[in-house]
Amino acid sequence: MTVAKNLDESENVDAVLLDAVNLALHYEMARDESVVVLGEDIGSNGGVFRATAGLKDKFGFKRVMDTPLAEALISGMAIGMASQGLKPVAEIQFMGFIFPAFEHLFCHAGRMRNRTRGRMTCPMVLRAPFGGGIHAPEHHSESTEALIAHIPGIRVVIPSSPARAYGLLLSAIRDPDPVVFLEPKRIYRGAQQLIQNNGQALPLDKCFTLREGKDISLISWGASISETLQAADVLAQKNISAEVIDVATIKPLDMRTILSSVATTGRCVIVHEAARSFSVGSEISAQVSEKCFLNLLAPVQRVTGFDTHMPYFKNENYYLPSAQDIVASALKTFKES
Amino acid sequence: MTVAKNLDESENVDAVLLDAVNLALHYEMARDESVVVLGEDIGSNGGVFRATAGLKDKFGFKRVMDTPLAEALISGMAIGMASQGLKPVAEIQFMGFIFPAFEHLFCHAGRMRNRTRGRMTCPMVLRAPFGGGIHAPEHHSESTEALIAHIPGIRVVIPSSPARAYGLLLSAIRDPDPVVFLEPKRIYRGAQQLIQNNGQALPLDKCFTLREGKDISLISWGASISETLQAADVLAQKNISAEVIDVATIKPLDMRTILSSVATTGRCVIVHEAARSFSVGSEISAQVSEKCFLNLLAPVQRVTGFDTHMPYFKNENYYLPSAQDIVASALKTFKES
Amino acid sequence: MKRAEHLVTNLGHQSLVQFHLDYIQFLGEQSQWVSERPGFASDDWLLKSYEYMVLNRVFDQKAIALQRTGQLGTFPSSLGQEAFGVAIGMALQKDDVFVPYYRDQGAHFLRGHKMEDLLLYWGGDERGSAAGPKQDFPVCVPIATQITHAAGAAAALKIKGQQQVAMVTIGDGGTSKGDFFESLNVAGVWQLPLIVLVNNNQYAISVPREMQCGAGTLAQKAIGAGVHGVQVDGNDVMAIYQAILEARQRADDHKGATLIEVMTYRLADHTTADDASRYRSSQEVKEAWLKEPIKRLQSLLFDLKLWDSEKEKTLQAQCTDKVDNAVKNYLNTEPQSPQSMFDYLYSEWPENMNEQLDILGDKVERMDNHH
Amino acid sequence: MKRAEHLVTNLGHQSLVQFHLDYIQFLGEQSQWVSERPGFASDDWLLKSYEYMVLNRVFDQKAIALQRTGQLGTFPSSLGQEAFGVAIGMALQKDDVFVPYYRDQGAHFLRGHKMEDLLLYWGGDERGSAAGPKQDFPVCVPIATQITHAAGAAAALKIKGQQQVAMVTIGDGGTSKGDFFESLNVAGVWQLPLIVLVNNNQYAISVPREMQCGAGTLAQKAIGAGVHGVQVDGNDVMAIYQAILEARQRADDHKGATLIEVMTYRLADHTTADDASRYRSSQEVKEAWLKEPIKRLQSLLFDLKLWDSEKEKTLQAQCTDKVDNAVKNYLNTEPQSPQSMFDYLYSEWPENMNEQLDILGDKVERMDNHH
Ligand SMILES: Cc1ncc(C[n+]2csc(CCOP(=O)(O)OP(=O)(O)O)c2C)c(N)n1
Ligand SMILES: Cc1ncc(C[n+]2csc(CCOP(=O)(O)OP(=O)(O)O)c2C)c(N)n1
Ligand SMILES: [Mg+2]
Ligand SMILES: [Mg+2]
User: Fold this and answer.
1) C-alpha dihedral over D20, D25, D29, D32, to 10 degrees?
2) How distant is the Cα of A121 from the closest Cα of chain C, in angstroms?
3) Chain C residue closest to A74 (CA)?
4) Residue B3: predicted pLDDT
5) ipTM over 0.90
6) pLDDT, tens digit, for every residue of A314-332?
7) How many whole angstroms separate alpha carbon A97 and alpha carbon A140?
8) For chain B, which domains are there?
9) Crossing angle for the helix pair D309-331 and D43-68, nearest 10 degrees?
10) Residue D56 Cβ contacting ligand 2 at under 6 Å
C-alpha cells in the first residue's frame, strides 16, 4: 500500500487499486464540494482498508462522516442526502454486510427517479470491498453482485485495475443515478499502474477489451481478471488466441461488445468468483447462446464459484476460479465443437 | 374465496390456491405441534389475504403470533425458534417487503447447518405472496425470486395450482432446511381444484410436467403457468405440440426434467413475470443452451417482465407476459431454425 | 426450580439517571380549554385549520367511493387523523423538507399538492408523484424507510448550513422497525434538525398498539436515542402544532431532534382493502368518535362565535366542489403510454434497453390487434 | 430568521411519565468494597472467576501470537473484558440458550467449548462451530443479527413452557443496528425470558461510544422497549453476575426481559487486523489499564487472603499449559477435504449438485498435479 501524504495532489502516480480509489475520492471531493463520504470507520480511521485515508483531515467531519453501525441507515441516509443536492459516497465495510441496505437500494435508490418522473433523483455511490482470497473471516469473502444487478435503476460497476478503479469511480460519483461500486479486495494491493491524476473518467456502459484474440472469448470481471489474463497467456503458448473482456460495468450490461467478440471467435468462457447459478454469468451465457446461436462452435463454458457457501478460508482456494480452471474449460470448447 | 369454518377438517374439498395454503397450515399444525406461525396481521386478522384464517382460534396465540412490524425481526426470530426445535412458518405480508429479511436469509438461515457442521439447523418456512396483476399499490407486485435463488442453502418453492400449493407447502414445512415459499397472488382465487386433505406432500426437487408435447418445451412457474397453458392450447390449434413444465422448485433446480424435455423437442421458451436479466430464466436459458447444444433447433426464447421497475397498476398488463407473447415467441423458434 | 438462590435484589445498586416526559393538550375532550389559548392560535389560524381538516375528510370519503366503484386502487383514509396532517401542513415552512408516509393527505394539500395528483398515485399512475416541492419526498409505502431518508435530508441541511428542518411522519406500527430506531439514534448523535411525528392511530392494520410495543408510550423511544420526546393529544390541532414549534425551536438552537407521539385513532379501515370489523369492536370505534378532531375544533369555533351552521354548509359545499373538480381532472387524465415504464430508469437511455423496448412495441401491437 | 415567533415554550404541557435507572457495582476502582459482599460471591466463586479470567487472557495472547505468525486468521481479543465473558459463563445454566457475538471467549470456556475449536473457527475451519451445547448458537459475525435469534429462542422457550432463559451478547456498536431495537421491542411486548448483555467496551472498531449514540447511557435504550434496563461496572465480575441474577429472577417471575449495559474498555486493538493507535491516544489506554478487571479481582483475592504470588505463578503456568495443549491440537488437526464445502448444504444431498462436485473433483486434481 503506497498511499502517502499528498499523494493525492501529484499528477502522475504509481498506484495500486486501493490507492486509485483513494485518489479518485480525493480528486472528486476537491473538485465538487457536494461530494460527501459516509460509513463505518471511514473518518478518523480512514477505512478498515484505508480507502478513505486522509479525507477527514482534508475535508473535515462535515463531509467525511463516521456513521453509527447500521447499514440500512447508511444507505437510507445516502438517499436522503442525495435528494437534497449532495453526492454521497457511502461505504459498506464489506459486501457481506450489505444486506440491510437492500430494501433501500431496491425500493428507493433504484426507483426514486422513476417514481417521481424525474423530480427527485438519487445520485449516490455505495462502495463495498468484495470477494475472496485474503484469508478473511466468515462473511468477508462473498461475491453477490448478481443480487444487485437484478435491481432495476441501479448501476453496478466493478473495476479490475488501478486505472479503471480511478476512472470508473470518478464517473460513478459524477453519474446522476445510484451506482453500487464493488472493489475486488484481493487485488487491492495488486500490481501498480501509472495513474494520471487528472480527473479523467471512464464510460459506465462499456466493457473493456483487455486483449484481442480470434479463437476464443474469455469474459470476466473483478479479481478474476488476473487469472483470466494468465489463462490467455497459457492458451497463447498452445497457439490459441484468446480475447479477454473485462465486463466492468455489470449493469447496464454492454452485451454488444461481448456478442461481437463471440460472433468472431465462436467460443466463450465466462469466469467469476460468485456462486454459479442465478448469477451474472448466467445472464451472459444465456444471451451469448441466444444471440450467437449460429456462430457458437461449442457450448459456452462457465468457470465459477460453487452453489455452496463460500468456505472458510482454509478451503477458499478450492472455491475460487484458477487460471488452470479457465484453461481447462477453454480447451473443452475445442474438443466439443 | 371459500375458506369456511371447519373446511380444514373435511376430507375432500374444492379449493382455490389460497384455501389450499390455509388447509395445509391447518393440517400440519394439527399434526405437528412444533409448527408455529408468525407474522404481521396473521393472527386475529387471519392474514391480509386470509391465508392464516382460523389458525389463531384453533391453535391459540402461543402458536399463532402477530409480530411487531419488523421483517428483519420476523426472519431472525424464525431462525431462533427453529434452533430450539420449533418449526416456524413465518409470513412476509408481501414479497416487496422481504428485503429486511435478506441479511438473515443469506447470513444465517441458509448457512446455519453448514456453519455448525450439522449441529444447528434451520427448519423454517418464509411464506410471501408475490407477483403482479391484482391492481395493488406500489411495491406489492414485484417478483424477485432470483434474488433468493442465488442464496446458498435455501430452497425456493413456487406453487401454481391449489393441489401443488397444498402438497408443496406441507413438504416445505416438513423439510429440515429453510424454504422460501412464494405464493402467486394473482391466482390466489383462481380455478378451484379438488384437494384430498390427507396430508400428502409433494417432492421439493422435481419440476412438474403439466402437459406433454414433442415440438417445443414451455418452461414457467407461478401465475404465468396459466398463460403458458393457454399458449399451449393456441399452439395445439396450429398443430404444434407443446410440453409445459412447471418448475415449481426453483432452487435446488431440477434441470434434469427440463433438459430431457428440450433434448426431445429441440425448442424452448421460458416464461416468467420477473425482470428479464440476471433472473431465474437466465439460469435456465444458460443451462439449456450449454447442455442441449446439439439438440437445440432454435435459440432459447424468454418471455419475461422488463428490466424496468414494475409499473404502477394502470400499466401492469404491459409488463406481464401474456399468452399471445408466449405464442409469438414460440412461433419464432420455428421460423429461425 | 428456584434459579437465583443467593439473590438479594438491589444489592450493589446506586441510582444512575432519571428521565421524564410531558404531554401537550390545549383543548379537552369536551372542547374545553385545559390550558391557556396559545399565541399562534389566532382566529384565522383556527379557521384555516378547520377548513383544511374538513377538506381532508371530504377528499377521503370521495376517494373511498372511487375505490368502491373501481375507479381508484387501494386507498388509505385518514379519517379521524385530520388534525395530524393539517397541523403538519400548517407548521411546515416553504423550504423545509417534508418526508411523508402514506396517510398525510392534509399535509399534502397545505403543501400545495394537487388532489388529482394524489388520486393519480393511488390510481396506479406514476405521474401522481411528479409535482410538489422539489425537496419533498413522495408518498412512501415501505414502512419506516422514509425516516432514514429524512435523517439524511436533515444531515444535508446541517452540512450545507441551512436553517430548515426535515419533518417526517410514521405510524405507530412503523416505530417497531429498525429504520425508525437507527434514524432516531443518528439524529441524537449528530444533533440533526429532524422532527419525527408518529401518527399513533392505535393500530397497524389489525395489530393494536399494545401488541406493537410493551412501553407505556411511544414518545419514550426518544430516550434511548438521546433525543427529546413528547406526547400530544392528536385530536387537538393546537397541541400538535405547539409541539412542532417547540421542536423547531430546539432545531434552531442546535439542540437536535424531537420525537412527537401524536395520539390519534384510525376511525376507518386501514385501507379500502381492509375490514376492521374483523379485529376490533364497534363499541371501541363508537367511543373514539366522541373524541375526533373535527368535531372538537368545530365546537371551539362555535364557542368562539367564529362559526355557524350556514358557514358550515358553505364550507362543505366548497370542499365537495373542489374534490369533485379534482376527481374530474383525475378521471380525464390521458393514460401514460406503455413505453413510459422505461422512462426515468436512468438519466440517460441505456442503449442496451432498446431490445426490450422493441419487445414491448411488439407486445403492444399484439394487444391492440387482440382487442 | 426567527422561526417560532409566537412560541411560549411549555405552554399546554402536563407531566406524563418518569423513569429511572440504576448502576451496580460492588468493587470500586481501588478494589475496595463499595457495597456489601453479595451472597453468591463465595471464596470458591471468586477463585473460579479469577482462574477463568486469567485463562481467557492467556488464550487471547496466544491467539494473537498465532495470528502474527500466520497460523491463525483475524482474531478479536477480549483483553480487558474478561469479567464480561466470565460472569456470563458463570451465570449460564446448563440448559439456558447462549447466543454469543464474537468476543466471548471467557463464556465459551465455561460453556465447555474446547479452546481448539475456537482456534479452528478463527483459523478458517467450519468444524470450529461443530461442538458445544446443542441449543447454543455459534459465533456470530454480522453485527446485532444474533439478538433476533436470541429473541426467537426466548420465544421458543416461552412457547414450550420451559424455565430457561436466552442470554445474548452484543457490542456497543451493535446497539445502533435495527435488529437490536426490534428484538428488545418484541422482548418487551411478548415479555420474553431474554437477557441482553451489552459489552460496552467504548469502541466499535474506531468509532467511540459518544459517536455511536447521543444518549448518556446505553441502558436507557431499554425504556423505549418497555424492558428493564441497568448499567453495571464491567470491571467488577460480581456486578455483572448480580445483574444477571436479577434479570433471571425477572424472567422467572414472568416480568420479561432485561438489558444490561456492562461498562468495559477494549484494551487491545479491535482485532489483529486493526491498529487502534490510529484513532485513540495511548494516554487513554494507559488510564483504562488502571481499572482492568483481572488486577481488580486479584487485589481482592489478596485482601481476602485467598491468593499469593505462588498461586499466581502456578495458575499462569497451568493456563499456559492448557492453551499450549489446545494450540497443539489445533495445529495437528487434519484439514477438511475440499469436498467438505458441499457438506451440510442441505440435510440431503441435492442431486443437481453432482455436476459441481465433479467440477470440484477435476479442479482438485489439477491443483494436485500443479504442485
Ligand atoms: C416494510 C413493510 N412491511 C409491511 C408493510 C405492509 N403494511 C402496510 S401498512 C401496514 C401497517 C402500518 O401501520 P402503522 O405504521 O401504524 O401506520 P398506519 O397505517 O396505522 O397509519 C403494514 C404492515 C409495508 N407497507 N411495509
Ligand atoms: C452488519 C455488520 N456491519 C459491519 C461489520 C464489520 N464490523 C465488525 S466488528 C465491528 C464493530 C463492532 O463494534 P461493537 O459492536 O462495539 O463490538 P466490539 O467489537 O467493540 O466488541 C464492525 C463495524 C459487521 N461485522 N457486521
Ligand atoms: Mg397505526
Ligand atoms: Mg465495542
Assistant:
1) 130
2) 9
3) C148
4) 46
5) yes
6) 999 999 999 999 999 999 9
7) 8
8) 12-196 (3.40.50.970), 208-335 (3.40.50.920)
9) 50
10) no
**Residue minimizing CA distance to atom 18 of ligand 2:** D171
Tell me the H-state helices in B84-161: 102-104, 112-115, 145-149
Task: For residue C123, give the nearest of B46, B48, B314 by CB distance.
Answer: B314
Q: At what angle do helices B224-237 and B323-335 cross, to 10 degrees?
A: 50
Atom of ligand 2 nearest to the CA of D177: 1
| pLDDT, averaged across chain A | 96
Q: Is the pLDDT of residue D62 over 60?
A: yes
**Nearest alpha carbon to residue D131 among D140, D121, D123, D141:** D121
Distance (Å, whole) CA B94 – CA B182: 10
Cα angle: B105, vertex B108, B109; to 5 degrees: 55
What sign does the dihedral C264-C270-C275-C280 (CA atoms) show? negative
N-to-C CA span, chain A: 45
pLDDT (tens digit, 9 = 90+) per residue, A176-210? 999 999 999 999 999 999 999 999 999 999 999 99
How big is chain C by its Cα radius of gyration, in Å? Answer: 23
CA dihedral over B166, B169, B174, B175, signed as positive or negative: positive
Distance, in Å, from the CA atom of B22 to the CA atom of B39, rounded to the nearest integer, reads: 15
List all residues 6 or more positions away from C220 whose beta carbon is below 8 Å from its beta carbon: C19, C21, C229, D17, D19, D223, D224
If DSSP codes are grouped into helix, strand and coil, which group holds residue B79? helix
Q: Which amino acid is at D198?
A: V
Measured in angstroms, how far is the CA atom of residue D204 from the centroid of ligand 2?
A: 6
Q: Is D108 helix (H, G, I), strand (E, B) or coil?
A: helix
Is the peptide bond prior to B252 cis by the omega test (within 30 degrees of 0)? yes
List pLDDT tens digits, range A198-247: 999 999 999 999 999 999 999 999 999 999 999 999 999 999 999 999 99
Three-state DSSP at B12 gives: strand
Residue C67 and residue C82: Cα distance in Å, rounded?
20
A41, A215 contact by CB (below 8 A): no
Q: Do A115 and C138 touch (CB under 8 A)?
A: yes
Which of B141, B278, B293 to mutate to test binding with chain A, by most A CBs within 10 Å of its CB? B278
Task: List, in order, residues 6 or more apart from C284 with CB less than 8 Å away.
Answer: none
Q: Which amino acid is at D230?
A: V
Nearest C-alpha of chain A: how many angstroms from C220?
21
Interchain CB contact of D70 with C (< 8 Å): no
- Which residue has its alpha carbon closest to ligand 1 atom 7? C143
pLDDT digits (tens, 9 = 90+) for C97-132: 999 999 999 999 999 999 999 999 999 999 999 999
Contact C106, C130 (CB under 8 A): no
Q: Is the CB of A99 under 6 A from ligand 2?
A: no
In DSSP terms, which residues pair with B36 in a beta bridge? Answer: B88
| Cell matching residue C41 | 392560535
Q: In C, residues 188-247, which contact D (CB 8 Å cutoff)?
A: 188-191, 210-217, 219-227, 231, 238-239, 242, 245-246
Which residues make Cβ contacts (< 8 Å) with residue A109, sequence separation at least 6?
A75, A78, A79, A122, A124, A126, A153, A154, A178
The H helix count followed by the E strand count for chain A is 11, 14
Instruction: Please tell me if the CB atom of residue D201 comes closer than 6 angstroms to any atom of ligand 2.
Output: yes
Cell of B140: 406489492
Report in angstroms the alpha-carbon separations of B259 from A293, B245, C193, D358, D359. 18, 11, 60, 19, 19
CB-CB contact of B259 with B265 (8 Å): no
The residue of chain C nearest to residue A114, with distances taken between CA atoms, is C344
Judged by DSSP in three states, C25 sits in coil
